[in-house]
Each structure stands twice: as structure tokens, then as C-alpha cells.
Model the fold of this input.
Amino acid sequence: MGGSGRPPTSLASCGRPDILKDTAMTANSTAEGRLLKFIPYMSVAAFFIGWQLIVSLGMVPKMLLAAPLDVLWLFIDKLTQAHPDGALLYVHVLVSLQEAVLGYLLALAIGIPLGLLMGWFHTVEGFARPIFEMIRPIPAVAWIPLTIFWFGIGLSGKVFIIWLSGIVPCVINSFVGVTLTNPTSIQMARTYGASKWRIFRTICIPSALPMVFGALQMALAACWTTLVAAELIAANTGLGFLITMGRRLTMPDMVVLGMILVGLTGFIIGVIIDAVEKKLLAGIRR
Amino acid sequence: MTSQTNAPASIPNRAPLSQRLAALVHSIIGSRYFLYTLSIAIFLSIWDLAAVNKVLGNFLPRPVEVLIQLWSLNAEPLASKTLFEHLWASIYRVLIGWAIGVIVAVPLGVFMGLNPYVKAVVKPVFDLLKPMPPISWISLSILWFGLGEESKVFIIAIGSFVPCILNSYNGIRLIDPALYDAARMLGASRRQEILEVGFFASAPAIFAGLQISLSIAWSCVLAAELVGSRSGMGFIIILGMNQSAPALIIAGMVVIAVTACLISVLMERLENIICPWKRELPQ
Done:
């Protein structure tokens, strides 16, 4: 099952990590090759120019959509001005990052060991799986009202929701990674008298690593989406809050600025994780 | 329990009774289903104990209260709708938004995979929009369409758009070139290549995209309904929040989880019917 960023749908049909990377467009020196290299830039330029024109020519009211230039000016303004949403831009970004990173790390710290143990020890699987399967189908968004009751709208509530959404891919991928261990290796280790724990430590965990690393990206995508949802509903700082404030004040430029920052930050974290993954896994995959 | 009947057979008949009993007990305790049952029982009793002792204040109802709440939701209408009407309101939005997303995204993804020019035009813009979570579009869609049905359908369409387009594109792009070569060697035209090889070889990946987008659509509709609506499952849980009725929230979450389960089971069944030749993509 291909597709990047695919949230796993079940323990059985979980996607392998995204290794279907886009191959760079082959740049041959023919006219066709040059044209194909050139078109993407034009396409992006056309997108922005079209967007700007639609707004400045008045085809769409300014109340509904902000032109890209307006968004840029607001971005520059917001770097130094707390008005009208009460915080500087970098504060919003830092608050969101703090919540997301805390929830994400907690999800990794609990989800990966749990998944690995579930894959190897039947007792752990027998206890953890039913509870996990009960919680898994509930979208993280649906936890928001209950979380507000339990933790309030502060940091801990958001971290809890983000943790819930991040832990699912971690557990599933580590679990599947261990169960996909080559049985021949396990049998050989057993023949040489390795203990169950030692087989787990020296064979199952290393062979599950590529799947575990695949979970890092999936969990990040899940965490980042959930963060926005959590902040849309209850927050007083953060990027999701910036978007909501933009709507309440009918400032579409603020909404678009918030969306762009959410996309950009998520993209940058994704690139960083990708680089770390490549470095740590050099030689294991393929 | 199958293990209960199977286990003693593996033990020699001559073993003393006490040993056989011990083996039987051991096989029951070691059995997966026994552990599953035990685990759920422990989970529910810890929940109940926590609720009775008010570990989380007044905001954790007992499991029994949730059941009673579920029953009464069914019997008496909430905001002039019964539970099933709210559920249907959510599902209806999901179906419309998802259908729109799929109808636009799948052909676009397929053409991106088939034609380098379409790819060169669409992919950069798509890559710009892709990293924004669908939920971050909620504010913009409320500005554009108001709090009515259209804004929810729009969010769901956006949410189902991304996985559909990615999977159709990758599904077409990652078809084993040997299949094309074989068809070409047998004298297939470009048209036949696409219709008789490309379509069938990419169907499993495209269908996987539909599955993913449907589950994303289900969480998008909840988010949209949490932000503002008068019906649907998201409305039920936000109503529970506004009325400080945690039992109502958890009852809503139970229905949401069951629906999500049913959706995924249904899609897996459908997949087996529609593309039984499904295989894993080359890793």
C-alpha cells in the first residue's frame, strides 16, 4: 500500500514507511526536458499571480480572501506587534511547537516500547491490545471536550490530545515491525540457545527499526493536525488560535498567515525528521 | 474457547490427573482470549473505581451511566433529533464531501501519473497546499460559506483530497514497468496499456487512498461540527461539554468509535470484492 503520510488503518494492513520518494524529474537536454523543468516554476508563479489578481481586481471581496501581498505585510507587522491577537508571531509558533514536541516525544517514548513488547510477548499483547483497539478508532478530535474537563485548556490538555493521536501509529508500526521479523533468524537464535529476551533485544528490535522510523513521520503528521484542532477549540496562544482569531476578527489575511505557518512549520519538522532518519538508518533500508 | 478443548489432547493420557489439570489451567491462562477478556474487565473496573472515587472530579462518569445515557439518547431526541438522526447527519456530510473530494482528486492523480505535463503543472501547487492540515481550513471555510452545510462539506472534501491524489498518483507511477513491457510486446496500443494494464494495476493503491481519505473525512466532520453546528455527532459531544455532562460526551465517543470501526470493516470487505487481486506495492 503506497502513499506517503498514510495513517495506518489497522494492525494488519499498515503501510510501510514512505520510501516512495519522488524521483527528481529527469533533466535531459531535449526541448521537452527543458520545458518540463520550466513548467513547475511557471505553475507556482501563475498560482500566486492569479491569487493576487483575483483579490486586487475585486473579483473576490477582501472580507473573504486576502491577497498574498497582504499576508506578507501582515507577517512583517506581526513580527514586532502583538496587536490584535495579543502575542507576537514567534510566541505563537513557539507555543505550538512546545505542545506538539512534548506530545510527540511522549507518544514515541510510550508507544514504541509498548508496540515492540506487544509484538514479541504474548502476555503484553493480550493485555494491551483490547484496550488499544477500543481507543484507536476514536479520532483524537473527539477527545477534545473530555480533555478540557479533565485538564483545562492549558498545556497538559493539549499535550494529552496530541499524545493520543501520536501514539497510535507508533504502537501499530512497532508491533508490525516485530511481527515481520524473519522467522528463520529467530529459529536460528533459538537453536543456539538464546533466551527469549535476548532474541527480542538483538534480533527483533533491529529488524523492526525501519518500520519504527516510518512511524516517526506518521506520528508527526497526526500530532501536527491534532494540534491545530485542539487550538481551534480551546487556546489563547498558538498557531491554531491565530487562525481562529483571524476568523473572529474577520481578518482573512490572519487566517491565511496562520495556515501558511502551520504548513511551513510542519514541513520543516518533517524534513528534519527525514534527515535524522536517513542518517540513523543508513545502510539498513533496501 | 478452542484452546480449552485442544490443550489436554496434546498431553499424554497417562500423566497424573493433577498434572493434567495444571496443564489445562495453564493453557486457559496463557490463551489469548482469556487475556483479552481479563484486560477489558480490568480496564472497566479501574474506570469504574476511578469514577466512584472521583479521581477526575465530577467529570468521569461510571461505565453504567454511559450505557444509560446511550439508551436515553436513543429514546428521547436531543435538539429535536434522535441519536440516529444525528449520526446520519454526520454520515451524510461525510459522504457528500468525500464523494466530491474523490471525484476531483482521483482523475487528477491519475492524469498526474500518466502525463508529465499535467504533473509539472499540478504537482508544485499541490505540494504547496499539502502540508496544511485539513482542519486548518476550517476558519477559512466558515468565512467563505458560513456555518451551514457547505463549510463542513468543503472541509471534508479538502481532507479527502490529499490522500486520494497521492495514492492515485503513486499507484499509477509505481506500476511495475514489466507489466507495460509485456503488454507492449503483445502489441497493445497506448490506450490499451492505460485501460487494461494501468487501471487494474493501480486499482488497489487507489482504493487504499479511498480508505484513508474516508477515515480522515470522519475526523474532519467531527472537527467541523465541534466548531459550529446544530446537528451531528460532533454537536452531541460539544453539547455534552457545554452542559457539563461527561456521560453524554463519552456516549457520543462510543458511537463515533463504533461507526469508525464499521466504516473500516465495510471498506475492507468492499476492497475484497472490488479488487481481489490486491497486492502490496513494491517496497
